[in-house]
Amino acid sequence: MKHGFVKTAAVTPRIKVADPVYNGKQICARMAEAAEHGAKIIVFPELCLTGYTCGDLFLQDLLLEGAKEQLRCIADESEGSDALVFVGLPVQKGQKLYNVAAVIQDGRVLAMIPKYYIPAYAEFYETRHFSAGNQKPETFLWDDQEIPFGTNILLQADSMEGLTVGCEICEDIWVPQSPGIAHALAGASLLVNLSASNETIGKDAYREMLVKSASARLIAGYIYTSAGEGESTQDLVFGGHNLIAENGKILAQEKKFTEGILYADVDIHRLSHERRRMTTWLTGDRADYRTVFFHLEEEETSLERTFDTMPFVPRDQKEREKRCEEILSIQSFGLKKRYEHIGCRSAVIGLSGGLDSTLALLVTVRAFDLLQIERDQITAVTMPCFGTTDRTYRNACELADTLGVRLKEIDIKEAVTVHFRDIGQDMEKQDVTYENGQARERTQILMDIANQTNGLVIGTGDMSELALGWATYNGDHMSMYGVNSGVPKTLVRHLVKYYADTCSNESLTKILLDILDTPVSPELLPPKDGTISQKTEDLVGPYELHDFFLYYMLRCGFVPEKIYRIAKTAFHGQYEDRVILKWLKVFYRRFFSQQFKRSCLPDGPKVGSVALSPRGDLRMPSDACGELWIGQVEEL
Questions:
Q1: What is the pTM (predicted TM-score) of this model?
Q2: Residue 627 catalytic?
Q3: Quick check: is 65 catalytic?
Q4: What domains does the chain contain, in order, with CATH numbers?
Q5: Which of the residues 115, 489, 497, 597 is marked catalytic?
């Protein structure tokens, strides 16, 4: 529960149709197992106390009384546990029979939520036995206890902000206007579905799509629990296909024909953040709702949830390749539009032989091919200085030649030396002035050549560098269009690798692979023994850590303490905890101190859900105080 995580469980017990005593014992055993595992929301299938396929036996008093008695036993068995448990059973109210989800906690039945949409088509004939539930809750006397009965009931935790649970039953999710929509708009952040969905060809894929879609549209967690093979009878087979989703992502999924317990940690705080940031998320009418409060003991959930070390990079290779192609298209078509608008037919780009400038050149070549402009109208400028190594120089020259762009070499050592003499900079003092003087000289040259050729200077800096302010103000920080400004460093590498794998040019592939193998460096300090002496990640920290921090700070709104916790989980065995904490401190200090550089960024295409443009996603004052965030990091 700490940091917004709540462990949930979808449980499919082994049952016997029309045997409430046996089923009750199975439910109690699985309920205790899930609670012992730390689950706080436990969901069993539809009508699991009797079995869904009882048919006309639902009209027998003996079955209904047996289910009622076993619900008492389950409630008694739950005493002492704060887990919120949903159990399906038939319940008679007045002269009607309802398909109900009973909500249990700590020895009590808190509420009963009836199924609203009762199917009577194809293999379903529930209307023969069950009535549609009332929406507006009514008071129902059950076992000498007055409880609310109706579909519009929300279970709200009094000890965990944002955790409100709504319930629907099986068919409710398959209809155009599901009860879950109203529940979510009324405040439910977690939806549970007690289901008995039989298996037919392709139904599992459709079921998964429904759950993913519901959780995405409603920005909610969704627990879908279905009946298993114990229900299978006559013409129907049930597979126990359980799913737990969060905001469009399947967190956990049980293989069909498996009876067991499926666990997943739903992040309630992330859902609340997502709803808060979306101005189109409108609160619905809560007038016809009854809120039932429940209490959870505050504790730190033992996380089973995994976190990708590279949240910007899809783990699946096919998905990653698709993502790379899409990003390259966004970058190149964005640049193409800028050229069409201003009628320009020339480009100037500083080519260092490093990853960022390589990607920028590849994108520019794509854009010029789309515009049907000859590639020799692209001027790649290599500007060796004090820190340039033979390897990066050679790769820059060979890359330009292989791509068919014009290469211009301008050695800036003399110009920088004269400039240092003019301002009184000691050449032996290799400080920030020594480094930035080179970067600004290069930008001045690029801008002036662009004037000569009536072209645009194409920026090469990536989003990770912008987040950390790892750019020389009015040096590599500035351009006329920054094609990489929306691409994090961890993704830059995959984009170049994708290009190398798909370009069908052996010479180009060889060059790109060598560039990929070159350490990331600004090359502003003299090399040692001919090799790069200044490695960026030694100075500012590993980019995979910084991209991880950036994603979970901006996209998910996580506090530093939470980011540190999940980073330790994600990078376990890769980085020691003290190393993660060290670079987390660096990240927050740099992020807040360097906003002034981001406030005047040139245009560049947004490619993902995280972006730093001051005109788009990040409207942040340059002088914002970061003490709240930095202070929490310092206390870790």
A1: 0.91
A2: no
A3: no
A4: 2-280 (3.60.110.10), 317-635 (3.40.50.620)
A5: 115
